[in-house]
């Protein structure tokens, strides 16, 4: 795309007060951003209404400065930074056919991941250690099968899903709620750099856009819209993950949910989705099989005997060895729900000093994690 054409797309889409629907109507009527910008107020009003005409007729100095700054940003790393307007060959086909597609996307990273089958993995920012392991394991298995994992770069399940896809040697797309010159949350700066190198960062927000609350539901519609289906790993009843899942359902896409403990608040959102018709899944292969079935077995590469999935903590560089509850009576006593030390002592009958020593060993092996409030939980699904 020539610099002048890029400038026109930026000036149109960065016009304050001009919404996406009005932009799409103007483009449909005039054929290009340049033609929209050359038209007069009467024609703008006829096509998109007086508010759109007023927005386009405002002095362009502020949007011109931002557009020129964006062009410089693109020119600094032309192999990594991209503009994807409607009609661009790399614009995701599924998103184009979803409700309310973005008029312009900003990308940073490898565009070829947009030409692969995509599935979203989303969930709680306050995930349990077991939830993080599940998100990582499912993402890694999907990536090893040729599926690109889409998520939102948030703390918790999102970050674990991105890490799992990258660890599986596949691709991941992080759809963010800020401009691409910002990383939110800041704690994911190194993960964002890794995604830039091995996957793709994607946003509909211009440079400098801060993480406003209203940006995240908007981001969620992109995650749902560009994915064949959405997997929810853990979610509270009113979480943004449920918004993503419902948007996916409204687009006619698949929705899967992993059940959890009836005692865990982070499982209630998944249970709610299952009651509303989401497919209950327990293993990555169930999602992989569903994705294949969507296109008669042609959407994904043939199964290739992927490497064994090893549960890995996203906040730790240490890989947890497989656990075997049949060989460890303490893990059997612990079960899979969060548990207090006192309850574990009562269940196991172990003396406290012996119990603490064994728990320390299990923590160092990555088989048990400590949670807020003094709770303990087993890692992985073994």
UniProtKB/TrEMBL annotation:
Pfam families: DNA_processg_A, WHD_DprA. InterPro entries: DprA (IPR003488), DprA_WH (IPR041614), DrpA_SLOG (IPR057666), WH-like_DNA-bd_sf (IPR036388). It comes from the Bacteria. Residues 318-374 form the DprA winged helix domain. Residues 84-291 form the Smf/DprA SLOG domain. NCBIfam families: dprA. Belongs to the DprA/Smf family. This is DNA-processing protein DprA. It comes from Ideonella oryzae. The gene is dprA.
């Amino acid at each position: 795309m020539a610099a002048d054409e890029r400038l026109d797309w930026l000036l149109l889409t960065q016009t304050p007060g001009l919404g996406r629907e009005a932009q799409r109507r103007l483009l449909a009527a005039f054929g290009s951003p340049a033609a929209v910008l050359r038209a007069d107020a009467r024609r703008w009003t006829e096509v998109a209404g007086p508010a759109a005409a007023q927005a386009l007729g405002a002095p362009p100095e502020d949007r011109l400065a931002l557009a020129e700054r964006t062009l410089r940003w693109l020119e600094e790393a032309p192999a990594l930074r991209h503009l994807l307007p409607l009609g661009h060959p790399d614009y995701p086909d599924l998103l184009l056919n979803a409700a309310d597609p973005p008029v312009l996307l900003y990308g940073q990273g490898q565009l070829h991941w947009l030409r692969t089958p995509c599935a979203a993995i989303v969930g709680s920012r306050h995930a349990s250690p077991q939830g993080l392991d599940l998100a990582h394991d499912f993402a890694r298995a999907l990536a090893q099968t040729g599926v690109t994992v889409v998520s939102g770069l948030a703390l918790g399940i999102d970050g674990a899903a991105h890490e799992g896809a990258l660890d599986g040697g596949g691709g991941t797309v992080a759809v963010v709620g800020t401009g691409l010159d910002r990383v939110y949350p800041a704690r994911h700066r190194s993960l964002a750099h890794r995604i830039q190198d091995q996957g793709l960062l994607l946003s509909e927000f211009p440079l400098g856009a801060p993480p406003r609350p209203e940006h995240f539901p908007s981001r969620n519609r992109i995650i749902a819209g560009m994915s064949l289906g959405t997997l929810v790993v853990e979610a509270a009843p009113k979480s943004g993950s449920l918004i993503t899942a419902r948007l996916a359902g409204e687009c006619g896409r698949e929705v899967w949910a992993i059940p959890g403990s009836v005692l865990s608040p982070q499982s209630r959102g998944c249970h709610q989705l299952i009651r509303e018709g989401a497919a209950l899944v327990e293993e990555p292969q169930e999602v992989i099989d569903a994705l294949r079935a969507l296109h008669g077995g042609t959407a994904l590469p043939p199964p290739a005997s992927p490497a064994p999935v090893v549960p890995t903590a996203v906040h730790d560089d240490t890989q947890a060895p497989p656990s075997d509850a049949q060989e460890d009576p303490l893990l059997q006593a612990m079960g899979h729900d969060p548990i207090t030390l006192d309850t574990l002592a009562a269940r196991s009958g172990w003396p406290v000093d012996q119990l603490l020593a064994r728990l320390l060993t299990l923590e160092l092996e990555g088989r048990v994690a400590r949670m807020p409030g003094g709770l303990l939980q087993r890692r992985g699904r073994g």
